Amino acid sequence: MSTMNAAAPPPTPEMRRPPARLWSLEVVAAQDLNPRMRRITLTGSDLGELTYKPGQDLVLQMPLGDGTYGRRHYTIRGLDTAAKRLDIDFVLHGDSPSGNWARNVQAGMRIDANGPRGRTVFNPRADWHLFTGDETCIPGILGILETLPSHAHVWALIEIADGADRQSVSCKARLDFEWLERHGPGGPSEFMLERVKAFKLPPGQGHAYIIGETSNVRAQRHDLLARGLAKDQISAEGYWRPGRIGGHDHIEERPH
């Protein structure tokens, strides 16, 4: 049967998306920011060509300890293109390939990464901004805050296990910042949801950036939608969820 006149299927979004660039990186240094956060500094011969929006991540090809590799998303914490140096912060929790790699990494070790990726980036058109997240979101939220213009009005709420997780915050914008100590392990809960429910939406056209554990992100997004924020006023991304290894969840609709 002839197929000369058959129409090709329309491209899907995944088909249209260009492949992410591969970066070959070498570890330069490592330092503990606190007992549960470790910063790894990497270099690469072409890092001067890397452009990204604060809040975006790289997908690291993480060695899993059995000779194989897994994709792990980690936010770009900082980039010095002139020095060709890149910072990525790792939360150290439990026995995991990423945590073990960050604990034991040594200068000269190499790792490949693809990217940058991610849609949770600053919306300069909004009148006000709300950021929420847990420990895994500290690099992304603080990385964005450090780049904001002085005229921006921002609220940032970050839940942490306890005071040991706190870090210094640098921001030129008008910032209302809260460390929320839950005094227990992270995971699905209403801890941040209750604080979001108590947050009075400011006047004007705002934008919320809701990241963290997927079910918590979904619940917070639902609350903000119910209180009048439009879908395009919320960037919602699940950084992790129990039982999932690697990857992010883009939260758009409540599943039926």
CATH fold call of the largest domain: Rossmann fold
For CATH, the homologous superfamily of the largest domain is named as Nucleotide-binding domain of ferredoxin-NADP reductase (FNR) module
Rg over CA atoms: 19 Å
Name of the CATH class of the largest domain: Alpha Beta
Task: Report the portion of residues in β strands.
Answer: 35-45%
Helix- and strand-based class?
alpha/beta
Distance between the termini: 42 Å
Counted by DSSP, the helix tally is: 5
Topology, element by element:
Blueprint: H1 13-16, E1 21-34, E2 37-43, E3 57-63, E4 69-75, E5 78-80, E6 85-91, H2 97-104, E7 110-117, E8 128-133, H3 138-145, E9 153-160, E10 174-181, H4 191-198, E11 206-213, H5 214-226, E12 234-240, E13 249-250
Parallel strand pairs: 8-9, 8-11, 9-10, 11-12
Antiparallel strand pairs: 1-2, 1-7, 2-6, 3-4, 3-7, 5-6, 12-13
Helix pairs in contact: 4-5
